[in-house]
Amidophosphoribosyltransferase
Amino acid sequence: MSHGQQDKLKQQLWTGDYYNEGVTHDHDGFFDKLKEECGVFGVFGHPEAAHLSYYGLHALQHRGQESGGICTSDEEEFNYHRGMGLVKEVFTNERLQELKGSNAIAHVRYSTSGESKLANAQPLVFKYREGDLAVATNGNLHNAMDIRKRLERLGSIFQTSSDTEVVAHLIARSPYDQLEDAVREALREVKGAYAFLFMTRGKLIAARDPNGLRPFVMGKLGDAILFASESCAFDAVGAEYIRDVQPGELLVLDQNGMREERFASKQRQSVCAMEYIYFARPDSDVDGINIHSSRKRMGKVLAAEAFVDADVVTGVPDSSISAAIGFAEQTGIPYELGLIKNRYTGRTFIQPSQELREQGVKMKLSAVRKVVEGKRVVMIDDSIVRGTTSLRIVNLLREAGAKEVHVRISSPPFMNPCFYGIDTPSRNELIAAQKSVEEIRQAINADSIHFLSKEGLLEAIGSDSTDKNSGMCLACFDNDYPTMADTSEGKSSEGLVESTK
């Protein structure tokens, strides 16, 4: 391969010296799984706030691997550090020692809006008339670009391409002196999905979007109050889960304690179903529902909907393991580790040769030949995006000697892009939006394929909400976007696409 060809290949697959450093491409060169969102962690009133945040971010690392940051406050000044890479790469013990203060907000990022660069790493820190302000969020504001253009015409100068900065400018322009009043006003202007943490030198504010699209939980460690995107972060620091932050709720913590307020009335509850299917860690609880248990139920319902006579059941690591166990328990077909994930390739291997690149799937995933050889295999996966990953894995199992490969997906067909903090391709790249189920089967070289029904998914999640879709956002499956009043009156998802560019 010529140097020119190598440079072109490098531009297509990665932007740094090694794979996944400062990723800006639309999807992984080897896998087309959905990209994680972001993770936030907050501490109010603990002398080791920075160290707690460090461990909390470790537990949330699956939600973003591009950058990490921690900002602390000791009521006199801010101390903060941000960097590109994994949490363990961004922070050293010496760096953490410099982050003095008993209050902190922290963030791990995967960019769903804005470029992957240090300027966009969070928490974002600003100077404004009331002093220092730090902001961290998980989610996406689909009207951020419209607000940004309006503010720029009024003279605002933006330093980042992240939509989080839009909220900071709205706060800075607010006529209110009290931060909570300015935040309340700003959040009433933005539309989308979010879990926000705001911090000044003596105050911390937490807010969740009115639909509850993004998960957000509150915990306690001694007298300190903690916030996190997932409850697994509390387990990592020995904290106790208290409750979920409610949709539209504004929690204000300062020297007088915590005040529970609202910035908006609760709208139709619409927790992102993909949190249960794929994103959240199995040991987390989202809105009181354990992720592992719900995924096992997905596998059981899937087995009832689409039984196939086979010899072994295997799951695509890691998010599909729970569903595979449920499928095996329901059918009585033995569950086996037919696929093994190599956990040390993501940020370490140097630019491979063309030959190795073509075998890239085997760098991340291996089939256990002695388990699948000569067997009829049921392969459980959580979703199909473009279909390229499913084809590679099916072929991997066939190369290892599988006699038949039956694919079962523990979610409905993924047919619509997300605008609420998940990085998804456009509709014309989504295989389920372009092909029938039979055409998908042929495209991925499977002997059979079945997707979990929408009704089966809701049954498996088990929410007791009386809101539409049992309080779940299923827009990626049914095109019903909860923040749009009526998608039939010129407010289709295609219109949302334009507003987010």
Notes: The mean pLDDT is 86. The first strand starts at residue 38 and ends at 44. The first helix runs from residue 3 to 13. The chain has two domains: 37-267, 275-500.
